[in-house]
């Protein structure tokens, strides 16, 4: 009997990995999760402190495929963006370049560009270049804001859901357009990319175009939900003082939330895009 293919997943304790690992195991893959701090996750094997661990490097070298989920979108320190988005990718690429992995699958962001003034986009852009030069088949999905289902909302979902009738804080005037993608579709795309499709960079946005206000109304299932808008200049100022809010993330929400739905991406990997409007209309 042949041995199952080994899949190494970085940041294996993130929301996407939480859906991905069971899907991979159901397909018969052997999963090795790389995380920073000790935590119980569903992978067959778990390695902690992975960025400074020789065992993790050996696992990356021995992997049949690598799924790189590491990244940071909201930090006040450039060093954090470098470590999470660029350094982690260098570790993956260096190990893969001398290892047996056939494919490297990476989640990036629309507009990723090594020359961008936005730190998140800059280091995602650098990461794309690093993986593309690793000498392996790199499949890169540029995902905008990723949304979950109403029965299992993630942090980004609950951020926009009213608590006890309180107003939802929104950065900007709410007219920023967005094409959020369903996390379940992202997971299906990753699993499919292990066996199908060509290497390259793919835009992976959802099929529905919403304003930020429209999105808030959707996840609350309430067109009259209270919203408190914060002027861009004030949001940028407050980001210097509010813990958990960075000027980089404010810039993403104000100027880089939009993306483009590309049906060809879904067709290439045999996935049917999910309507978030339909999905969230089931919220009780």
TrEMBL record:
Family annotation (Pfam families): Epimerase
Superkingdom of source: Bacteria
SUPFAM superfamilies: NAD(P)-binding Rossmann-fold domains
Alphabetical list of InterPro entries matching this protein: ComplexI_NDUFA9_subunit, Epimerase_deHydtase, NAD(P)-bd_dom_sf
Gene Ontology terms for molecular function: protein-containing complex binding
Residue ranges constituting the NAD-dependent epimerase/dehydratase domain according to the UniProt record: 8-202
PANTHER family: NADH DEHYDROGENASE [UBIQUINONE] 1 ALPHA SUBCOMPLEX SUBUNIT 9, MITOCHONDRIAL, NADH-UBIQUINONE OXIDOREDUCTASE 39 KDA SUBUNIT-RELATED
Protein's recorded name: NAD-dependent epimerase/dehydratase family protein
Native source organism of the sequence: Chitinophaga fulva
Lineage, top ranks: Bacteria, Pseudomonadati, Bacteroidota, Chitinophagia, Chitinophagales
